[in-house]
Amino acid sequence: xxxxxTLAATTIAVALLxxxxxxxxxxxxxxxxxxxxxxxxxxxxxxxxxxxxxxxAEKLAAEFEAEYPGVKVQVERSGSERVFQRIGxxxxxxxxxxxxxxxxxxxxFIYFKQQGWLEPAVPKIVADEWPDxxxxxxxxxxxxxxxxxxxxxxxxxxKDVEPPKTWEDLLKPEYKGRxxxxxxxxxxxxxxxxxxxxxLLGWEWFEKLGQQDVMQVQSSTEPPKKLAEGERAIQVxxxxxxxxxxxxxxxxxxxxxxxxxxxxxxxxxxILKDAPHPDAAKLYYAYLYSTKAQQLNSDFGGLRSFNPDVxxxxxxxxxxxxxxxxxxxxxxxxxxxxxxQKYEQYFGT
Length: 349
Prior knowledge:
Blueprint: H1 3-18, H2 34-43, E1 45-50, H3 54-67, E2 72-77, H4 80-92, E3 100-103, H5 106-115, E4 118-119, H6 124-129, E5 142-148, E6 151-154, E7 179-181, H7 188-201, H8 203-209, E8 215-216, H9 222-228, E9 234-235, H10 240-248, E10 253-256, E11 262-272, H11 278-289, H12 291-301, E12 324-325, H13 329-347
Parallel strand pairs: 1-2, 1-3, 7-8, 7-9, 11-12
Antiparallel strand pairs: 3-11, 4-11, 5-11, 6-9, 6-10
Helix pairs in contact: 1-4, 1-5, 1-13, 2-11, 3-12, 7-13, 8-13
Protein backbone atom coordinates (compact mmCIF):
# COMPACT_ATOMS: atom_id res chain seq x y z
CA UNK A 1 0.00 0.00 0.00
CA UNK A 2 1.43 3.37 -0.98
CA UNK A 3 1.15 6.74 0.72
CA UNK A 4 -1.44 7.61 -1.98
CA UNK A 5 -3.49 4.59 -0.94
CA THR A 6 -3.26 5.71 2.67
CA LEU A 7 -4.51 9.08 1.54
CA ALA A 8 -7.46 7.47 -0.17
CA ALA A 9 -8.32 5.61 3.02
CA THR A 10 -8.07 8.82 4.99
CA THR A 11 -10.40 10.51 2.52
CA ILE A 12 -12.92 7.76 3.19
CA ALA A 13 -12.56 8.55 6.89
CA VAL A 14 -13.52 12.14 6.22
CA ALA A 15 -16.71 10.96 4.55
CA LEU A 16 -17.45 8.64 7.43
CA LEU A 17 -16.90 11.40 9.93
CA UNK A 18 -19.47 13.54 8.20
CA UNK A 19 -21.98 10.71 8.44
CA UNK A 20 -22.39 11.09 12.19
CA UNK A 21 -22.17 7.42 13.18
CA UNK A 22 -23.65 6.52 16.57
CA UNK A 23 -21.80 4.41 19.14
CA UNK A 24 -22.79 2.42 22.19
CA UNK A 25 -21.77 3.62 25.63
CA UNK A 26 -18.32 2.67 26.86
CA UNK A 27 -18.12 -0.73 28.60
CA UNK A 28 -17.65 -0.98 32.34
CA UNK A 29 -14.02 -0.46 33.42
CA UNK A 30 -12.06 -3.60 34.23
CA UNK A 31 -9.20 -4.49 36.57
CA UNK A 32 -6.41 -7.01 36.21
CA UNK A 33 -7.75 -10.06 38.08
CA UNK A 34 -6.48 -13.60 38.67
CA UNK A 35 -9.10 -14.88 36.21
CA UNK A 36 -7.88 -12.48 33.50
CA UNK A 37 -4.26 -13.48 34.12
CA UNK A 38 -5.16 -17.18 33.88
CA UNK A 39 -7.07 -16.63 30.64
CA UNK A 40 -4.19 -14.58 29.22
CA UNK A 41 -1.76 -17.42 29.98
CA UNK A 42 -3.98 -19.76 27.97
CA UNK A 43 -3.63 -17.36 25.02
CA UNK A 44 0.13 -17.40 25.64
CA UNK A 45 0.98 -14.49 23.35
CA UNK A 46 -0.02 -10.91 22.64
CA UNK A 47 0.92 -9.20 19.36
CA UNK A 48 1.56 -5.47 19.64
CA UNK A 49 1.82 -3.24 16.57
CA UNK A 50 3.46 -0.06 17.82
CA UNK A 51 5.15 3.15 16.67
CA UNK A 52 7.02 3.58 19.96
CA UNK A 53 10.81 3.45 19.64
CA UNK A 54 11.82 -0.21 19.44
CA UNK A 55 14.19 -0.10 22.42
CA UNK A 56 11.47 1.38 24.63
CA ALA A 57 8.78 -1.00 23.38
CA GLU A 58 10.97 -4.07 23.91
CA LYS A 59 11.95 -2.89 27.39
CA LEU A 60 8.28 -2.54 28.34
CA ALA A 61 7.47 -5.94 26.84
CA ALA A 62 10.28 -7.56 28.83
CA GLU A 63 9.02 -6.01 32.07
CA PHE A 64 5.52 -7.31 31.34
CA GLU A 65 6.80 -10.82 30.61
CA ALA A 66 8.71 -10.81 33.91
CA GLU A 67 5.57 -9.79 35.81
CA TYR A 68 3.27 -12.18 33.94
CA PRO A 69 5.33 -15.28 33.04
CA GLY A 70 3.62 -17.42 30.47
CA VAL A 71 2.48 -14.53 28.29
CA LYS A 72 4.91 -13.49 25.55
CA VAL A 73 4.78 -10.11 23.82
CA GLN A 74 5.50 -10.01 20.10
CA VAL A 75 6.60 -6.44 19.34
CA GLU A 76 6.04 -5.30 15.75
CA ARG A 77 7.48 -1.79 15.48
CA SER A 78 7.27 0.64 12.56
CA GLY A 79 6.44 4.28 11.86
CA SER A 80 2.84 5.31 12.52
CA GLU A 81 1.87 5.61 8.86
CA ARG A 82 3.37 2.19 8.08
CA VAL A 83 1.50 0.66 11.02
CA PHE A 84 -1.67 2.31 9.71
CA GLN A 85 -1.07 0.91 6.23
CA ARG A 86 -0.34 -2.58 7.55
CA ILE A 87 -3.52 -2.73 9.61
CA GLY A 88 -5.52 -1.50 6.60
CA UNK A 89 -4.03 -4.18 4.37
CA UNK A 90 -4.66 -6.94 6.90
CA UNK A 91 -8.21 -5.88 7.69
CA UNK A 92 -9.16 -5.62 4.03
CA UNK A 93 -7.68 -9.08 3.44
CA UNK A 94 -9.43 -10.65 6.42
CA UNK A 95 -6.11 -11.23 8.19
CA UNK A 96 -6.07 -10.79 11.97
CA UNK A 97 -2.51 -10.89 13.28
CA UNK A 98 -2.43 -8.00 15.75
CA UNK A 99 -4.05 -7.78 19.17
CA UNK A 100 -3.16 -4.22 20.16
CA UNK A 101 -2.30 -1.25 17.97
CA UNK A 102 -0.60 2.00 18.97
CA UNK A 103 0.42 4.94 16.79
CA UNK A 104 1.35 8.58 17.30
CA UNK A 105 -1.09 9.79 14.64
CA UNK A 106 -4.42 10.49 16.33
CA UNK A 107 -6.09 10.62 12.90
CA UNK A 108 -5.47 6.87 12.59
CA PHE A 109 -7.78 6.11 15.48
CA ILE A 110 -10.61 8.19 14.07
CA TYR A 111 -10.39 5.96 11.01
CA PHE A 112 -10.08 2.70 12.97
CA LYS A 113 -13.12 3.60 15.04
CA GLN A 114 -15.20 4.57 12.03
CA GLN A 115 -14.31 1.30 10.34
CA GLY A 116 -15.42 -0.67 13.40
CA TRP A 117 -12.03 -2.30 13.86
CA LEU A 118 -11.61 -1.58 17.58
CA GLU A 119 -12.88 -3.58 20.55
CA PRO A 120 -14.15 -1.31 23.36
CA ALA A 121 -12.18 -1.86 26.56
CA VAL A 122 -11.52 0.52 29.44
CA PRO A 123 -8.86 -0.27 32.06
CA LYS A 124 -10.01 1.04 35.44
CA ILE A 125 -7.01 3.34 35.79
CA VAL A 126 -7.94 5.03 32.51
CA ALA A 127 -11.54 5.45 33.63
CA ASP A 128 -10.47 6.89 36.99
CA GLU A 129 -7.38 8.94 36.21
CA TRP A 130 -7.16 9.93 32.52
CA PRO A 131 -8.42 13.36 31.42
CA ASP A 132 -11.69 13.15 29.50
CA UNK A 133 -10.11 14.64 26.38
CA UNK A 134 -7.45 11.89 26.34
CA UNK A 135 -9.80 8.90 26.13
CA UNK A 136 -12.49 7.97 23.66
CA UNK A 137 -15.96 8.49 25.17
CA UNK A 138 -17.04 5.16 23.68
CA UNK A 139 -14.10 3.33 25.26
CA UNK A 140 -12.42 2.31 22.03
CA UNK A 141 -9.00 3.87 22.63
CA UNK A 142 -7.07 6.12 25.00
CA UNK A 143 -3.85 8.13 25.05
CA UNK A 144 -1.08 5.68 25.88
CA UNK A 145 1.68 8.28 25.59
CA UNK A 146 2.50 11.78 24.49
CA UNK A 147 5.70 13.32 23.25
CA UNK A 148 6.90 16.48 21.63
CA UNK A 149 8.39 16.93 18.19
CA UNK A 150 11.36 19.09 19.06
CA UNK A 151 14.09 21.17 17.52
CA UNK A 152 17.49 20.18 18.90
CA UNK A 153 21.20 20.59 18.17
CA UNK A 154 24.68 19.28 18.94
CA UNK A 155 26.36 21.85 21.13
CA UNK A 156 29.83 20.74 20.02
CA UNK A 157 28.98 21.01 16.31
CA UNK A 158 27.60 24.55 16.40
CA LYS A 159 30.50 26.34 18.09
CA ASP A 160 31.06 28.48 15.01
CA VAL A 161 27.53 29.96 14.97
CA GLU A 162 24.76 30.87 17.38
CA PRO A 163 22.30 27.99 17.84
CA PRO A 164 18.74 28.48 16.57
CA LYS A 165 16.17 29.78 19.03
CA THR A 166 13.06 30.09 16.86
CA TRP A 167 11.52 28.26 13.89
CA GLU A 168 12.34 31.22 11.67
CA ASP A 169 16.01 30.93 12.65
CA LEU A 170 16.25 27.65 10.72
CA LEU A 171 16.02 29.61 7.47
CA LYS A 172 19.32 31.37 8.15
CA PRO A 173 22.07 30.64 5.59
CA GLU A 174 24.56 29.49 8.23
CA TYR A 175 22.44 26.38 8.87
CA LYS A 176 22.24 25.26 5.25
CA GLY A 177 23.39 21.66 4.84
CA ARG A 178 23.54 21.11 8.59
CA UNK A 179 19.98 19.99 9.32
CA UNK A 180 18.01 16.73 9.35
CA UNK A 181 14.26 16.14 9.54
CA UNK A 182 11.73 13.33 9.34
CA UNK A 183 8.91 12.75 6.85
CA UNK A 184 5.14 13.23 7.44
CA UNK A 185 4.36 10.43 4.97
CA UNK A 186 6.05 7.93 7.28
CA UNK A 187 5.75 9.32 10.79
CA UNK A 188 2.52 10.22 12.55
CA UNK A 189 4.47 12.51 14.86
CA UNK A 190 5.78 14.48 11.91
CA UNK A 191 2.39 14.52 10.21
CA UNK A 192 0.99 16.17 13.35
CA UNK A 193 3.95 18.55 13.64
CA UNK A 194 3.79 19.52 9.96
CA UNK A 195 0.10 20.25 10.27
CA UNK A 196 0.41 22.58 13.25
CA UNK A 197 3.57 24.29 11.93
CA UNK A 198 2.00 24.91 8.53
CA UNK A 199 -0.90 26.59 10.30
CA LEU A 200 1.47 28.62 12.47
CA LEU A 201 4.21 29.55 9.98
CA GLY A 202 2.57 29.06 6.57
CA TRP A 203 3.70 26.85 3.71
CA GLU A 204 6.12 29.58 2.64
CA TRP A 205 8.26 28.62 5.61
CA PHE A 206 8.42 25.00 4.46
CA GLU A 207 9.21 26.10 0.92
CA LYS A 208 12.19 28.10 2.18
CA LEU A 209 13.27 25.28 4.49
CA GLY A 210 13.24 22.92 1.51
CA GLN A 211 15.97 25.08 -0.05
CA GLN A 212 18.26 24.56 2.97
CA ASP A 213 19.73 21.22 1.80
CA VAL A 214 18.01 19.34 4.64
CA MET A 215 18.82 15.65 5.11
CA GLN A 216 15.54 13.72 4.82
CA VAL A 217 14.87 10.60 6.91
CA GLN A 218 11.68 8.66 7.62
CA SER A 219 10.75 8.00 11.23
CA SER A 220 10.77 10.70 13.91
CA THR A 221 13.18 8.45 15.80
CA GLU A 222 15.88 8.96 13.15
CA PRO A 223 16.87 12.66 13.42
CA PRO A 224 18.21 12.17 16.97
CA LYS A 225 20.27 9.26 15.71
CA LYS A 226 21.81 11.48 13.03
CA LEU A 227 22.73 13.98 15.74
CA ALA A 228 24.24 11.21 17.86
CA GLU A 229 26.32 10.02 14.89
CA GLY A 230 27.44 13.57 14.13
CA GLU A 231 26.03 13.46 10.58
CA ARG A 232 24.05 16.64 11.18
CA ALA A 233 24.23 19.38 13.80
CA ILE A 234 20.54 20.34 13.97
CA GLN A 235 17.31 18.39 13.91
CA VAL A 236 14.33 20.32 12.62
CA UNK A 237 11.94 17.79 14.11
CA UNK A 238 12.11 14.45 15.88
CA UNK A 239 11.11 12.73 19.06
CA UNK A 240 11.83 14.55 22.28
CA UNK A 241 12.19 11.24 24.08
CA UNK A 242 15.11 10.15 21.91
CA UNK A 243 16.89 13.40 22.72
CA UNK A 244 16.29 12.79 26.44
CA UNK A 245 17.88 9.37 26.07
CA UNK A 246 20.89 10.84 24.28
CA UNK A 247 21.31 13.38 27.07
CA UNK A 248 21.18 10.55 29.62
CA UNK A 249 23.97 8.86 27.65
CA UNK A 250 26.12 11.99 27.75
CA UNK A 251 25.72 13.03 24.10
CA UNK A 252 26.06 16.87 23.93
CA UNK A 253 22.59 17.67 22.59
CA UNK A 254 20.31 20.52 23.57
CA UNK A 255 16.55 20.84 23.05
CA UNK A 256 15.04 24.11 21.84
CA UNK A 257 11.49 24.99 22.86
CA UNK A 258 10.79 27.96 20.55
CA UNK A 259 8.65 30.80 21.91
CA UNK A 260 6.22 30.25 19.01
CA UNK A 261 5.44 26.80 20.43
CA UNK A 262 6.38 23.11 20.15
CA UNK A 263 4.16 20.44 18.53
CA UNK A 264 2.82 17.69 20.80
CA UNK A 265 1.77 14.30 19.46
CA UNK A 266 -0.59 11.94 21.25
CA UNK A 267 -0.03 8.20 20.91
CA UNK A 268 -3.33 6.36 21.26
CA UNK A 269 -3.69 2.62 21.77
CA UNK A 270 -6.58 0.21 21.38
CA ILE A 271 -7.50 -3.46 21.13
CA LEU A 272 -8.51 -4.79 17.73
CA LYS A 273 -11.98 -6.32 17.52
CA ASP A 274 -10.82 -9.59 16.00
CA ALA A 275 -7.74 -9.93 18.18
CA PRO A 276 -6.43 -13.52 18.00
CA HIS A 277 -5.45 -13.42 21.69
CA PRO A 278 -8.30 -11.44 23.30
CA ASP A 279 -7.57 -12.15 26.97
CA ALA A 280 -3.83 -11.56 26.63
CA ALA A 281 -4.74 -8.36 24.79
CA LYS A 282 -6.92 -7.15 27.68
CA LEU A 283 -4.16 -7.93 30.18
CA TYR A 284 -1.44 -6.18 28.21
CA TYR A 285 -3.69 -3.24 27.39
CA ALA A 286 -4.39 -2.64 31.07
CA TYR A 287 -0.68 -3.03 31.84
CA LEU A 288 0.24 -0.35 29.28
CA TYR A 289 -1.63 2.27 31.32
CA SER A 290 -0.46 1.12 34.76
CA THR A 291 1.64 3.48 36.82
CA LYS A 292 4.54 1.03 36.63
CA ALA A 293 4.52 0.90 32.83
CA GLN A 294 3.90 4.61 32.44
CA GLN A 295 6.74 5.45 34.84
CA LEU A 296 9.05 3.16 32.86
CA ASN A 297 8.03 4.97 29.68
CA SER A 298 8.89 8.27 31.32
CA ASP A 299 12.17 7.25 32.97
CA PHE A 300 13.62 4.98 30.29
CA GLY A 301 11.78 6.24 27.23
CA GLY A 302 11.42 9.96 27.93
CA LEU A 303 7.72 9.83 27.10
CA ARG A 304 5.10 12.11 28.63
CA SER A 305 2.20 10.50 30.50
CA PHE A 306 -1.38 11.38 31.41
CA ASN A 307 -1.11 9.18 34.50
CA PRO A 308 -1.08 11.72 37.37
CA ASP A 309 1.10 9.48 39.54
CA VAL A 310 4.01 9.49 37.08
CA UNK A 311 6.92 11.68 38.18
CA UNK A 312 9.02 13.53 35.60
CA UNK A 313 12.74 12.86 35.70
CA UNK A 314 14.78 15.63 37.30
CA UNK A 315 16.18 18.15 34.83
CA UNK A 316 13.46 17.79 32.22
CA UNK A 317 11.34 20.81 31.41
CA UNK A 318 7.77 20.10 32.57
CA UNK A 319 4.98 20.45 30.03
CA UNK A 320 3.50 23.27 32.12
CA UNK A 321 6.53 25.42 31.19
CA UNK A 322 6.39 24.74 27.44
CA UNK A 323 4.09 26.46 24.98
CA UNK A 324 2.44 23.53 23.22
CA UNK A 325 1.08 23.43 19.69
CA UNK A 326 -1.83 21.00 19.81
CA UNK A 327 -3.70 19.59 16.83
CA UNK A 328 -7.34 18.66 16.43
CA UNK A 329 -7.44 15.23 14.73
CA UNK A 330 -10.81 16.00 13.13
CA UNK A 331 -9.22 19.07 11.50
CA UNK A 332 -5.87 17.44 10.74
CA UNK A 333 -7.55 14.64 8.81
CA UNK A 334 -8.81 17.25 6.33
CA UNK A 335 -5.24 18.52 5.77
CA UNK A 336 -3.51 15.19 5.08
CA UNK A 337 -3.66 15.44 1.28
CA UNK A 338 -2.36 19.01 1.25
CA UNK A 339 0.41 18.19 3.73
CA UNK A 340 1.71 15.29 1.64
CA GLN A 341 1.47 17.14 -1.66
CA LYS A 342 3.13 20.31 -0.37
CA TYR A 343 5.84 18.36 1.42
CA GLU A 344 6.76 16.34 -1.66
CA GLN A 345 6.75 19.54 -3.70
CA TYR A 346 9.14 21.39 -1.39
CA PHE A 347 11.43 18.55 -0.30
CA GLY A 348 11.38 16.41 -3.45
CA THR A 349 10.53 13.21 -1.64
